[in-house]
Write a structure and sequence with these properties.
Number of helices: 7
CATH architecture of the largest domain: Alpha-Beta Barrel
Family: Belongs to the class I fructose-bisphosphate aldolase family.
Pathway: Carbohydrate degradation; glycolysis; D-glyceraldehyde 3-phosphate and glycerone phosphate from D-glucose: step 4/4
GO molecular function: fructose-bisphosphate aldolase activity
Protein name: Fructose-bisphosphate aldolase
Distance between the termini: 38 Å
Shape: globular
Number of domains: 2
Oligomer: single chain
Strand order of the largest sheet: 1-2-3
EC number: 4.1.2.13
Helix content: 40-55%
CATH superfamily of the largest domain: Aldolase class I
C-alpha cells in the first residue's frame, strides 16, 4: 500500500478504469481471528479509498478460501463476518459504495467436506450472506470461481440468480479459467479447431 497512490495515478494516466485487490481468509479451528478479519478489511478499505481518489473503480475481494473439511454453514458464517468487517472498514474510510464492486467467494463447503450440497444449497447460503452483509448501494457482485469446475461455477451462478428474495445488486462472474479451460483445450491454438472451440464456449452459455 505504501506507493499505491502513485501507482494508481500512473494506471489512471495510462488508461486504466478499475483495479482489484484480493485478501484471503482461511478457515481452521483458530482462524480467521478477530485481528485477521480486521486487518484484511482495513487493507481493502485503504486500497479502495486510494483507488477512488485517483478515479479508479476498486474491485474489493475478501475471499474465504475453500480449503478444509468444514460444512457450508461454517463458510456462510465466516463469509458474513468478512463482509461485515469489510463494509465497516469501507465506511470508516469514507469509500463511495456506489463506485465499488464486490468480488466474493460463493458460499460452499470446504473442498474436503464429506457432506455434499446441491447448487440450490450454495445459492441459499450465498444469497443469505450477501443479504446480511452487502449494502444495497453496492451496484454489483462479481463472483470468483474458487477452484470450481466449469460446470459447477456455471450452475452455482445460475442458481444464485434464480434464488428468490431481495437481490438489489447485479450478480455475475469475474473469472476466466472456469469458463475457458475446455475452450482452450478444444482450440489448441489451431485455426481448424475454432468451430469446436466456439461450440465448447456455447455450452457454458
Amino acid at each position: 500500500l505504501d506507493d499505491l497512490n502513485a501507482r494508481c495515478a500512473k494506471f489512471k494516466k495510462d488508461g486504466c478504469q478499475f483495479a482489484k485487490w484480493r485478501c484471503v481468509l482461511k478457515i481452521s479451528p483458530d482462524t480467521p481471528s478477530h485481528l485477521g478479519y480486521q486487518e484484511t478489511a482495513n487493507v481493502l478499505a485503504r486500497y479502495a479509498s486510494i483507488c477512488q481518489q485517483n478515479g479508479l473503480v476498486p474491485i474489493v475481494e475478501p475471499e474465504v478460501l475453500p480449503d478444509g473439511e468444514h460444512e457450508i454453514e461454517v463458510t456462510q458464517k465466516v463469509t458474513e463476518l468478512a463482509l461485515a468487517y469489510t463494509y465497516k472498514a469501507l465506511a470508516d474510510h469514507h469509500v463511495f459504495l456506489e463506485g465499488t464492486l464486490l468480488k466474493p467467494n460463493m458460499v460452499m463447503a470446504g473442498h474436503s467436506c464429506p457432506k455434499k450440497y446441491t447448487h440450490e444449497d450454495v445459492a441459499r447460503a450465498t444469497v443469505t450472506a450477501l443479504q446480511r452483509g452487502v449494502p444495497a448501494a453496492v451496484p454489483g457482485v462479481v463472483f470468483l470461481s474458487g477452484g470450481q469446475s466449469e460446470e459447477d461455477a456455471s450452475l452455482n451462478l445460475s442458481a444464485i440468480n434464480k434464488y428468490p428474495g431481495k437481490k438489489p445488486w447485479a450478480l455475475t462472474f469475474s473469472y476466466g479459467r472456469a469458463l475457458q479451460a475446455s475452450v482452450l483445450k478444444a482450440w489448441q491454438g489451431k485455426n481448424e479447431n475454432i468451430a469446436a472451440a466456439q461450440a465448447a464456449f456455447l455450452v457454458r452459455a
